[in-house]
Design brief:
Elements (H helix, E strand, L loop, with lengths): L4 E4 L5 H8 L4 E5 L2 H10 L4 E4 L12 E7 L10 H11 E12 L3 E8 L2 E9 L2 H10 L2 E9 L9 E8 L13
């Protein structure tokens, strides 16, 4: 079987399920117990785990790829280097990261989301800041794309692909908790 792919910050599991449908050995990881429960209920044939992207319960160099779609918006700036160091740690040499996030330059606090009460922070970042943090963690950025908002969106979307190029566990020297 091929090395696994992790959808980190998988939420309700739709991206993870899509990856499995493409024939990949994919699993979803999310901090929220409720999201993991919803994903398991909706996609019972797919593996989902509860976990934190700041301390992944995965072996070093165990993943062929990571997909992280719109999940770093919940990570404060001070924790972003730890997250990217974790991504680097669990990716095999030559492993790929596909990251998507809403671009901006502000922190937002949300109390309502799609008609439901929430207490959520969203950290919006300029693409160059994210690229710099990825490079500091030892990931080589190979592609960066920004697209304008779709009609129902308000923010640019940024897509970044990066890869590990080194056998070193943590060339960026970022301390992990």
């Amino acid at each position: 079987m091929s090395r696994p792919v992790a959808d980190i910050g998988c939420g309700p599991g739709h991206i993870t399920s899509h990856l499995v449908g493409l024939g990949l050995n994919a699993m979803g990881i999310d901090l929220s117990e409720e999201m993991v429960g919803l994903a398991r209920q909706t996609y019972p044939a797919v593996e989902f785990r509860q976990g934190s992207m700041t301390a992944l319960e995965l072996s070093d160099a165990s993943l062929a790829a990571i997909v992280a779609f719109y999940s770093i918006i919940h990570i404060p700036d001070s924790h972003l280097p730890v997250v990217f160091a974790e991504f680097h740690r669990v990716l095999r040499p030559g492993g790929l990261l596909l990251l998507a996030f809403q671009a901006g330059d502000e922190d937002r606090h949300l109390e309502e989301w799609h008609g439901h009460p929430v207490d959520m922070h969203a950290y919006l970042r300029r693409p160059e800041r994210v690229v710099g943090s990825l490079e500091d963690a030892g990931l080589a950025v190979t592609l960066q794309m920004i697209r304008s908002p779709e009609p129902r969106e308000t923010l640019d979307r940024c897509y970044v692909m990066a890869r590990t190029d080194s056998d070193e566990p943590n060339p960026g020297g970022v301390a992990t908790p």
